[in-house]
């Protein structure tokens, strides 16, 4: 089995808030688009090739080669699973960032990999406790595997608490909250979960009151083999949320989702004040610093600025101010990319109301921008892989 040179990064879930897939109409349109492109390719060749022998030679090539020549630049399909990103390092360590619904497919691949060779422990880093960032756990084969996996879980208190209150994975106890989301709990799982809370300013010997997990300083990087994972605070309204920078083999990747940069002029009537604005701007400043010169970054770009400010609708929903909802704007990401000089940027946490064609429109604008700029920026798609 090939071992990645440095880091192999796979996006398993890039939708925001709730899983959202293409409608039957979108799938029908896509089928027609591919059929039309295929037929026009064949027609063109029928008229342009000089004879039957040339035509036979042309079509004797592999299907993959022919498909690559179809007049479709890339697939307009945008995946629908919620946040989950996997990093496999050259040392065969697995780092999983968030466990949204994308974790189900991620886990299937991990089990396939394990059946072909050895894999080291799994390290799961969570950003926060919202459902779209943890809903994949009860459906992930790695939690029920034999032999069992050892899963080390890192995150803020809210992330660890949400996993424990719903599944009892750290405390091995159940409460009346345990079965609110799913009918399973830790007892049905073979995996052993060991938690570490990342808390700013936590000194040596700080412990969680119930001793359900260890506590360590957020500002101290977590070292896994030769990989360094540095957590940092994002701004997600009242919800504590972390981002991560991963460095391995001289390459770097920043993962930041559910982060909102509040506008300097807060809308009139907003319940948000100076304190919240300062927290948001401080988190943005820290993020810009974390991203300086990185090779790859993944950000939450759920809205366009006009949608965020309530001047424009998304899908069929009426225009609505989304200031204070905890998510980011694509325009702010572009500013961040230029300020931090990020080589390659992926924009995810796509709004569930945004259909394939509107995502495709944004993708085209970003493609044109990237061609005229020194930095590459694109919309994230489920299933994308990057080798750093
Ligand atoms: Zn989210
Ligand atoms: Zn959230």
Defining traits:
388 residues; 9 helices; 22% strand; eight-stranded mixed β-sheet; seven-stranded mixed β-sheet; binds zinc ion; single chain; Metallo-beta-lactamase, Chain A; globular; alpha/beta; 15 strands
Could you explain how this protein is built, in words?
The chain has helices at residues 24-48, 52-59, 63-67, 103-116, 157-167, 274-290, 305-308, 330-340, 356-372, and strands spanning 7-13, 84-89, 94-97, 122-125, 150-155, 192-199, 214-217, 222-224, 227-236, 239-248, 251-256, 296-300, 344-348, 376-379, 385-387. The protein is an alpha/beta fold and 388 residues long. A hairpin with a 2-residue loop joins β8 (222-224) and β9 (227-236). The protein is globular and about 80 Å long. Bound molecules: zinc ion (ZN) (2 copies). One zinc ion is lined by residues 128, 130, 236, 258, 326.
Instruction: Report the radius of gyration as a whole number of Å.
Output: 23 Å
Pattern of helices and strands: EHHHEEHEEHEEEEEEHEHHEHEE
Largest sheet: 8 strands, mixed
Q: Which class of the largest domain in CATH terms?
A: Alpha Beta
Count of extended strands: 15
Corresponding CATH superfamily of the largest domain: Ribonuclease Z/Hydroxyacylglutathione hydrolase-like
pLDDT average, as an integer? Answer: 92
Low-confidence stretches: none
Q: Roughly what percent helix?
A: 25-40%
Distance between the termini: 18 Å
CATH topology of the largest domain: Metallo-beta-lactamase, Chain A
Bound molecules: zinc ion
Structural class: alpha/beta
Shape, per Cα inertia axes? globular
């Amino acid at each position: 089995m090939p071992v990645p040179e440095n880091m192999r990064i796979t996006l398993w879930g890039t939708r925001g808030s709730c899983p959202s897939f293409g409608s039957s109409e979108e799938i029908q349109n896509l089928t027609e688009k591919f059929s039309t492109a295929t037929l026009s390719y064949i027609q063109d060749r029928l008229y342009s090739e000089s004879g039957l022998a040339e035509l036979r030679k042309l079509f004797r090539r592999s299907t993959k080669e022919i498909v690559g020549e179809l007049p479709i630049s890339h697939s307009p399909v945008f995946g629908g699973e919620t946040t989950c990103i996997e990093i496999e390092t050259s040392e065969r360590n697995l780092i999983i960032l968030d466990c949204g619904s994308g974790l189900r497919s991620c886990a299937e691949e991990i089990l396939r990999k394990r059946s072909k060779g050895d894999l080291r422990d799994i390290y799961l880093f969570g950003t926060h406790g919202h459902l779209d960032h943890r809903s994949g756990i009860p459906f992930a084969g790695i939690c029920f595997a034999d032999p069992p996996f050892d899963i080390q879980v890192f995150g803020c208190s809210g992330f660890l608490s949400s996993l424990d209150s719903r599944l009892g994975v750290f405390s091995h106890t159940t409460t009346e909250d345990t079965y609110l989301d799913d009918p399973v709990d830790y007892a049905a799982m073979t995996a052993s979960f060991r938690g570490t809370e990342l808390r700013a300013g936590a000194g040596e010997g700080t412990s969680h009151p119930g001793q359900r997990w260890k506590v360590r300083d957020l500002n101290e990087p977590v070292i896994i083999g030769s990989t360094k994972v540095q957590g940092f605070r994002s701004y997600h309204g009242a919800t504590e949320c972390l981002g991560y920078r991963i460095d391995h083999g001289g390459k770097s990747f920043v993962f930041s989702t559910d982060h909102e940069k509040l506008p300097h002029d807060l809308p009139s009537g907003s319940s948000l004040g100076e304190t919240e604005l300062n927290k948001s701007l401080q988190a943005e400043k820290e993020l810009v610093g974390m991203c300086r010169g990185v090779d790859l970054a993944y950000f939450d770009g759920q809205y366009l600025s006009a949608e965020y400010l309530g001047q424009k609708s998304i899908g069929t929903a009426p225009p609505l101010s989304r200031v204070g909802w905890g998510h980011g704007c694509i325009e702010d990401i572009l500013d961040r990319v230029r300020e931090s000089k990020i080589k390659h940027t992926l924009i995810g946490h796509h709004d569930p109301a945004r259909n394939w064609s509107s995502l495709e429109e944004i993708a085209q604008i970003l493609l044109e921008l990237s061609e005229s700029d020194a930095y590459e920026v694109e919309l994230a798609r489920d299933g994308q892989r990057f080798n750093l």
